Each structure stands twice: as C-alpha cells, then as structure tokens.
Amino acid sequence: MVWRSPMMVLQTDAAVMLGIVLLVLVAGAATMLFVGVRARGEAAAARRQLARLQATFRTSPALAMLVRGDGRIEIPSTLAASLGLDQPARTLADLAQGEHGLSAEDVDGLIRDVDVAQRAGRPFERAVMPQGTERTFALRGSRAPADLGVGVLVWVTDISDARVEIERLGSEAARLAEAYDALSGLIEAAPLPMWVRAADLSLAMVNTAYVDAVEGRDADDVVVRGVELVEGSGRGGPLAGATAARDTRRPSEQVLPATIDGERRSLRVIDVPLPGGGVAGFAVDVEDLERARSGAKRFADAQRGMLDRLSAGVAHFGPDRGLLFCNQPFRRLFAMRNEWLSDRPEFDRVLERMREAGRLPEVRDFPGWKAERREWFVATDSATEENWHLPGGTHLHVVAQPLPDGGLLLIFEDRTEQVQLASARDTLLRVRTATFDNLFEALGVFAADGRLQLWNNRFRALWGVDEQFLSSHPRVDAFAERIAERLATPSRSALIPDLVRSATAERQQRGGRVAFADGRHFEFAGVPLPDGNALFTMLDITDSRRAEQALRERADALEAADKVKTQFVANMSYELRTPLTSIGGFAEMLHGGYAGDLPDGAVTYVEAILDSVERLGLLVDDVLDLTNGGQGAAIERADVNLAEVLRAAAEAVQPAIKRRRIDFAVEVARSVGRVQGDAKRLREVAEHLLRHATGSLPEGGRILLHADGTATRARIVVSDDGPGLDADSLTRAFDRFAEPGLQPGGERALGLGLPLARQFVEAHGGTIAIVSEPGEGTLVTVELPRR
After folding, report:
1. Which residues make Cβ contacts (< 8 Å) with residue 153, sequence separation at least 6?
2. How far is residue 509's CA from residue 526's CA, in Å, rounded to a whole number?
3. DSSP string covering 557-610, please?
4. Burial of 709 (0-12, 13-18, 19+ CB in 10 A)
5. What is the spatial distance between Cα 455 and Cα 465, in angstroms, rounded to a whole number?
6. Which burial class, exposed, middle or buried, applies to 262 when counting CB atoms under 10 A from its CB (0-12, 13-18, 19+)?
7. In the predicted model, what is the mean pLDDT of residues 740-769?
8. Going by DSSP bridges, is the β-strand pair 395-402/510-515 parallel, antiparallel, or unpaired?
9. Torsions phi, psi of 447, nearest 5?
C-alpha cells in the first residue's frame, strides 16, 4: 500500500476540479460555435428564400394590396399604375381618382366587400374595369394573416386577355345551356325510357317515360329509390351493359326482358359512356320487332321446309349473285354436293357446275349464253320463262324471277314425264278417235249444257243425219226432234233428252230399248262421264231380240213338256203302287203259310220278293216326294219334339239294319229340344240319311245317329264307317238327276235319299252338309233353326 500525504491529496483534487471547469468551458464554446454556424446558415437560407419570393412576387400575374383596419391601404406602385392612378392612393376611395381610375360604383362595391371580409372573415371576388380602358382586373380578397396585422389582403389579377375568351365561353355556355334545355325537353318528351347514371352507376336522372315504365311517383322518387327498369342482377342484369360501357368507353347494347304495364316486354337497352365517367342510356321496346323477327324466321324456316318438299328445284341467289338457298330437289336434279354448296358459290360457278353435270342445254357459245342468263338479275320485266332440252331426253321448264333486293329466284320444273304423257296422250287420242269411229256401237257425247260434242260414224249413219247438222253441235232437244221420225213410236225420242239430263245433272246411268220404224231394235244408255259430260250409246240388238224370242218360245215349250213329264211320273207312281201293293200282300201271305208250307228255297225267294217290294215302295215314295217338291209342296208348321221324331226314324230302319248285321248307335241329347216344322218330313230326313248310310255299308259296319242343339239351332249328325265317296261322287251327292252307280255287292252308292233330305231341310230353313273321303266313311250334318 502506497502512502500519500494530505498535501498531495489536496493538489490532486484541485487539478481534477480545474480539468472539469476547463472541460465545461470548451464544451460551451463548442456549443455556441455550432449554434452560430447554424444560425448563419439559416439566415443565408432565409435571404435566399426571400429573394426567391421577391422574384416570384415580381413575376406573379397577381399583385397584393393590403387594406389596414383604419382604412389605409398599402398598394405597390406597379399596381397603382395598372389601375390607372395618377398619384399614390391612401384609401380605397382614392382608387377612383384620376381619368383612368376605377368607377365610383366599383369602389363602393369594393369598400362593402372589404368591410364584410374584415368583420365576418368572408372572402370575396369582384371584377373591375378602369375607366377609359378595356382592361379588366379580378379582385380576390380575404382577411390578412395575423403577422400582417389587422386588415384585408386583396389580390389583383389582370384578366384582360381572358375576358374575350370568357365572353366567348359565356356565349358558348349560354348556347350550350339553351341546347341542354332543348335536349332535356326532348329527353323528357321522348316516348322511350331514358336515364343518366353517375360514375358509380347509380341513377342520376330519368325522364317521364322511365317513371311511367317503373310506375314511380316522380323522377326524384325513382332516382332516390334507385328503381331499375330491367329486373335481375349479376351477369346480364341492368348494370351489366352500363358497366361494360363505362369500362370499355364504348357503347353497349343488349336485349333484356322487362315488365311494363303488367306485360312482359323485350327491351333493347343501349348504354353510352359520358366524358365525366357517367353513363347515359335509353331503352327501345322491341317486343313487336322480336315477335315479327321470330315470326319471319319461322315463316322462312317453314317456307324452306315446304320448298324442300316440292318436286320442282328452287335456287335463291342474293344481290351479290351468291347462292343463298337451294332445296333438295335442286340438289338432286343437278347433282350438287352439300359441302360444295355450303361455300355459297356464285351464279356463274353454279351454271358451270350444272354444265359439268350435263344438266344444261348444249350451246355453241357457252360464255355468251351464260352472260345472257346473268341479265336475269337486272331484268325489269316480269319473270322470264324458258324450256331447256337436256341430253338424255330431260325437259326442264325454267322460271327466273328477279327479286326487289337485286337477287334472283330460279325454279326448275322437270316436265319430262309431262312431255312423255302429252305424247302418249296424243297417241291415245288418235287411237281413241280411230277406235271411236270404227266401233260397232253408235256413240255420241253430250256436254253438260246438252250440246252434242263428239260422235262416231255409226252414230251419224244410224240416225241418218248429215255431217253439217252434227257439226253445228245441236242441243239434245233439237237432235231428238230431228230423229223422231225414224222411230216406230216418234214420242219415244223424248227418252234421249231425259237420259242425257239424268247422266249430266243427276250423275245416274239409265238405259232402255227402242224400236225403229224399219223393224230394227236398239238398246241405249246414258252414261255419266268423269268430266261432267254424258255418253249416249246405242247397240243393235235386232238379232239378239229375235234369238231371245226364239229362246222364250223354246222355254215355254220345255216348261210345258216338263209339266207333262211331271204329271206322267206322278201318274205312273200312283199306278205302280196298285200292283206293288198286290205283290207285297201275296208275298206276305205266302211267307205266312196261307198257301201251305213252303220249302226252304221258296221261303228265301219270298223274303227276297218282300225286300224288293219294300225298296220299290220306298223308291216310288221318293219319286212322288220329288215330284211334289218340284211343284212347290207346302211344309206344315207345328211344334215338333225332335227326339221322338229321330227315335221313330231309327225304329223304321231297324229291320234293314238287322238283316245286314250293322252296329247301330243312337245318341239323342236333351239339348236337341223342339223345333217348328213338319214332323213327317223331318222323320223322312232322318230315315233318308240312315237308309243312305245303310245302303253303302257292308255287313258288320257301324252307324251313329247323334243329335244335340243350342238355344237357336238343333243339329242332327249321321256318320258311318263305310267306303266313303270320292270327290266326283261328293259333288253329285245332292243332285237328283245324277246316275246312282253301284257299290261292290250290287248296292247303290247314290240315290234319291240325299236330294230329298236336302229338299226337306231347306224347306225348313236349315242347312245340310256332307263330308266324306274314300275309305274313311261319311258324315252328314243337318242344322235346323228353332223358329
């Protein structure tokens, strides 16, 4: 540890204190030096700023005048000279001194303005003009800044150069105001809604038509509420077009729906950008136009659809001679491909393509021919028509119709078939004329008015009239009067007018016969023709009339002979019954042993005699029945139990069935019921059918008699398993004049049984049918009505 004395400590402290004082003094000097340097810099900057302000003030177009609170003014000499003062002014009233000072009126107004500005602090503006000069000054005054003291600072600006422009702009403004008023009145009176939008697209102004369309109270109410004419929002809404017009600075147009007076209408909305950033717009009601346009489009589509269904080819060329439309027949007729037509080929190219397809007439000078067809576009006359004869025999009828818009409509009609038909028609007419004149019949054609139009040579020769009379086309009444004397009964000539009128007016065909005075007979008729005329025909039937008379006389003779034959057969049948009855009676006595016992051989012979007598008796009865039926024998009508009748018929044929050892079955259903008819004849029907079946069967055969019925009809069926009938015998089964033929064993295949059965069944209003095949048996069906 170092020891220090008190003196040394004291000296050390004094040195420290002295250093601190010196340090403080140096720091203060440095600070004062820095402040001085900064103040000097600020002073230099202030001097420079002052120089600049003074230079700016000297070059400024406006000069300042300070009006103190006590009324004194401080005015630069340059300003005083500009205001035309002869000596410096001390107050505002001094501004009127001198020959070129301000007028007293301007000075009084300036004093009032300064007073108001000083008291109320309200700035003012005033324009003054020194007397005797054309200079104008603008005065703008306001309360002076506090550092200038109490007073009013007035800035004076020479606006003489701008006065002419101001006057021009004033007159222009007045003119524009007048135009604006006129435009506003026009907009207000416009019948279509119009509006103006601000930059934010809010409504700023609307006209009366807009107010009426949105059913508003007035324009201010519509603007305040922002009622839009078109409903909706977003894309396609009322602001979409306005936004596009504002952003692109180009007019926007769109068609939008709107409800006006309760009706849905289509409006064409046009938005136009304004220089100030707003948008003006108006709406045109295009509902009727859209409907008309839609209707026109539908009409055009329907018309094109109809043209496609026509048989004629149609081509429509526009004013530029390009192909606008062609229908399907045109494309097929000229072999045009759709992809080639889609390019709207020009008229000349279409003709060249038609020529390449061989669908144009062959001409030597094709360019000249084509140039002549181009004249169709400018033709002032009506439509041009031509006939084109194409290679291959095709005939086209061409119609070129110029259109009001400068276009051309071409119609191509294929008349090949018509030409061929016309040629064929001419040929047919010549053939018809030749045929007409060479017919054996007499023909005449009368028109609907009754006049004779056509006739053949036979017609003229038959009536004995000259060609001159027929060529005058006489009326049917005059013709009938002319030929009346050639008829056996002249009054019969009135039939001719009646027939013609019936055929032409009533469209009915009528005919008749007439006798000529020379003994000839003709058949005539009036035939209605499709064209409304009447054909009068006459056919000579003299020979046929004579043949008819001869045939009639022969028929009468045959009828008389038939009656004699019928009477003879009836008489012979009755005469045969007497000896037949005697033979049968004596044979039965011999068989019964009245003449003594007979040997076995004699008994067999007697039984054969009895069988033959029975069959001969039946045959005689059949002949009598046929004879009486042919003469129209009556059928008795009574309520008949058909089941009892059928069982009685079955019992009647039992002896013959037993002798042949035939299996016989009877099936009579309860449904067979009762019918209205003749019980005797119905029994004979059943017996004939059973005897026919028995006669064709060998021993051991089978026969079935079946009967049933419905509510309206009764049915009888007789079937057997015999040899059946071939096709030829089947066709003659019901023929009473057919030769009977023989079955093996000597039995008859066909007799009078079936014809008699058919005769009796049809007399009852019923039907009978037979079905048979060789080796398959025979089935006969009878159906009888209940009533």
Report:
1. 64, 65, 66, 67, 141, 142, 143, 144, 145
2. 6
3. HHHHHHHHHHHHHHHHHHHHHHHHHHHHHHHHHHHHTTT----HHHHHHHHHHH
4. buried
5. 12
6. exposed
7. 69
8. unpaired
9. -75, 175
* List of E strands, 31-167: 62-68, 73-74, 124-128, 137-143, 151-158
Give the end-to-end CA distance of the chain in Å, rounded to a whole number: 177
Q: Are 354 and 319 in contact (CB under 8 A)?
A: no
CA-to-CA distance for 643 and 46, rounded, in angstroms?
161
546 within 8 A of 522, measured Cβ to Cβ: no
User: Two tokens at 39?
Assistant: 């103040």
Q: Write out the two tokens for 245.
A: 């017009």
How far apart, in whole angstroms, are the C-alpha atoms of residue 100 and residue 129?
A: 9
**Structure-block tokens of residue 379:** 């033709």
pTM over 0.85: no
Residue pointed to by tokens 């027949």? 329
- Cα 633 → chain centroid: 71
Q: Which residue has the higher pLDDT, 186 or 606?
A: 186
- Chain centroid to CA 90: how far? 104
Q: Say what the pLDDT of residue 714 is.
A: 92
Fill in the amino acid letter for 213: A
Q: What are phi and psi of 380, to 5 degrees?
A: -95, -15
User: 152, exposed or middle or buried, with CB in 10 Å at 0-12, 13-18, 19+?
Assistant: buried
Between CA 163 and CA 40 the distance in angstroms is 48
Residue 624 in this model has a pLDDT that exceeds 70: no
**What whole-number distance in Å separates Cα of residue 310 and Cα of residue 303?**
11
Beta bridge partners of 706: 667, 717
Beta strand spans in 578-711 (E) = 638-641, 663-668, 674-677, 702-709
Instruction: Please determine, for residue 734, whether its predicted confidence score (pLDDT) is greater than 60.
Output: yes
Give the contacts of 100 (CB within 8 A, at least 6 positions apart): 83, 84, 85, 130, 131, 132, 133
For 276, other C-beta atoms within 10 Å of its C-beta total: 8
Q: Which residue has the tokens 């290679």?
A: 391
The per-type count for the chain, helices as H runs and strands as E runs, is 24, 27
Give the pLDDT mean for 248-268: 82
Average pLDDT over residues 615-627: 61
Higher pLDDT, 266 or 712: 712
- Cross-strand partners of 280: 196, 272
Task: Report which residue type is found at 625.
Answer: D
Residues 22-67: pLDDT tens digits?
A: 777 777 777 777 777 777 777 777 777 766 755 655 556 677 788 8
Neighbours of 727 (CB within 10 A): 9
pLDDT tier at 619 (50, 70, 90 boundaries)? low
Torsion sign, CA atoms 288, 289, 291, 296? positive
What CA–CA distance (Å, rounded) separates 705 from 431? 69
Residue linked to tokens 């009068």: 536
Q: Rounded to whole angstroms, how far apart are CA atoms 607 and 585? A: 12
Q: Is the dihedral of CA 438, 443, 444, 448 positive or negative?
A: negative
CA distances from 350 to 321, 344, 368, 375 (A): 10, 10, 16, 15
pLDDT digits (tens, 9 = 90+) for 678-724: 888 888 888 888 888 888 788 888 999 999 999 899 999 999 988 88
Both tokens of 213, joined, read: 């369309």
> Considering the chain, what is the average pLDDT of its residues?
79
Residues in the chain: 787
Task: State how far the Cα of 450 lies from the Cα of 675, in Å rounded to an integer.
Answer: 63
